[in-house]
Amino acid sequence: MSIQRVPFDRLPADLVAELTAAGLDAGAVYDAVELALDEDLPAAGPGEMPSEDVTSMATIPPEATGVGVFAAREEGVVAGLGLAALVFHYVMGDTVTVTDRVPDGARVAPGDVVMRVAGQTRGLLTAERTALNYASHLSGVATATARWVAALDGTNAKVLDTRKTLPGLRDLEKYAVRCGGGVNHRFSLSDMALVKDNHVVAAGGVVPAYDAVRRAYPDLPVEVEVTTLEELKELLDAGCERILLDNMTTEQMRAAVEMTAGRATLEASGGLTLERAREVAETGVDLISVGALTHSVRVFDLGLDLSEG
Questions:
Q1: CATH code assigned to 150-295
Q2: pTM for this entry
Q3: For a designed S-S bond to 291, which of 164, 184, 189, 202 qualifies (C-beta 3.0 to 4.6 A apart)?
Q4: Which CATH number is correct for 8-142+298-308, 1.10.760.10, 3.40.980.10, 1.10.3720.10, 3.90.1170.20?
């Protein structure tokens, strides 16, 4: 079979509703899937039909049907299975049946079946890699986040993501962080001001930088990065309510929490590791931001095994 490229308005309504309820723009997700499949099946030019999966076309009879079983090969938290289902519906339309899909955010063990897809074998294998790329990567993000959440259990600290995301995948990766129990930081450069070290240098200090943002965007949330306790005191006196403690030692963070005494939300950041997570959380900081949740995460080992239908 050739790829169907099912239009957005013909996708299963319950799948679109599920993605929307999860905080995703279902139309943007559809566009991302379309771009991903364009890589595997490029068209010769504008208005031309996409190319074919030549291996599947050559080796599989057109009438052949099969069942593909997605199974976890390690312990972790899954995410992106709704997106994987969308890939199959995009390629195969209503000729594919998706069953036994576990909810995103579920914890799974090796051997657990997380989704089944049934239909024409050519279509299943055409969609397989794109579906696995999304689900394996996003499950890796969710699993890594869940490990941090577990390490912080019993403390008041929450694990936070960053903007260190793969271009074009930010919303999906931040969704996977939520599936793992984490909290999202800002999504763009415009929904929150984050004054970093270079902004401080350009503005002439932490307080001038903070004041400049407050004057320009009085209603916008603002966070300022500090590297010393002296800078922290200056910002607290200026009324800053969210402060990032960058690359501080455990002792410095503990002193920062004592100095702040609840007057501001404190976020720890900079080279933090899972092994050090609880030690940092027990200083009393409110948030721990971890770029590694998205920028260097290991993919989750998820596989698809095909059997004849």
A1: 3.20.20.70
A2: 0.94
A3: 164
A4: 3.90.1170.20
